[in-house]
Amino acid sequence: MIEAREFLKAGQLLHGHKCPAMPMGLRAGAAAMNALAVPRAKDKDLFAILELGDDHCSHCFADGVQMITGCTFGKGNIRKVHHGKFGLTLVDRGTGRAVRVVPLARAQAQMKQTKFFQEYRSKGTPASQVPDEVVDPLIQQVMSAPQDQILVVGAEFKTEVDKTGETFATRPCQACGEMVVDRYMRVLGDKLVCIPCQEASQLSGKTA
Ligand SMILES: [Zn+2]
Ligand SMILES: [Zn+2]
Question: How many Å apart are CA 78 and CA 86, to the nearest integer?
Answer without folding.
Answer: 14
